[in-house]
Amino acid sequence: MTMTHPQDRLCDCHCPVHQGFQRPDYNTNGCACLVTCPTQPMTLLVDHWRCALFLHPANGRLWFVMSLGHGQWDWESANEIDDRADAFVAGQTIESLLRKITAIVAGPARHEATTGPRLSGS
Question: Which of 32, 62, 67, 113 is the 20 to 30 A CA-CA neighbour of 43?
Answer without folding.
Answer: 113
